[in-house]
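Hypothesis: this fold can be encoded by more than one sequence.
Test: take the structure tokens below, design a sequence, compare later.
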């Protein structure tokens, strides 16, 4: 299995980010982890780098509940931006919500590859990376 260059975490929960970064590092399958604490910062980064393929992530782990711009708002804007991005980015919703409505809504969005319920384990991360 080839390592991926960049994985982006979009989540405002410092404990989740810390633990997930540690789990990702243990897989030794990701060279760089970028973290954004809200959807707006992540979206602005993607807009600024939409033609710079090397700066864009292969995978985004996206939380739904965040300040400033939540995961749903991010996905709405990302769906508009996606056709102009020069790279195929795989997005996984990573949420503590077990709401059937959230899961169904997320899976109906073409840009979302899967819905992962927190916490995310090292084995689950390896599975997600293998799917690329």
């Amino acid at each position: 299995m080839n390592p991926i260059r960049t994985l982006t975490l979009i989540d405002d929960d410092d404990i989740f980010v810390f633990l997930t970064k540690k789990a990702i590092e243990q897989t030794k399958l990701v060279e760089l982890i970028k973290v954004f604490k809200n959807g707006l910062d992540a979206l602005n980064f993607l807009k600024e780098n939409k033609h710079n393929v090397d700066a864009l992530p292969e995978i985004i782990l996206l939380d739904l509940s965040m300040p400033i711009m939540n995961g749903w708002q991010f996905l709405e804007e990302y769906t508009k931006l996606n056709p102009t991005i020069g790279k195929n980015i795989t997005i996984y919703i990573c949420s503590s919500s077990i709401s059937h409505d959230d899961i169904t809504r997320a899976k109906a969005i073409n840009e979302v590859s899967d819905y992962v319920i927190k916490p995310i384990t090292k084995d689950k991360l390896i599975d997600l990376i293998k799917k690329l």
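The chain has a mean pLDDT of 92. The beta strands are 4-10, 30-36, 59-62, 90-95, 112-117.
Hypothesis status: open.
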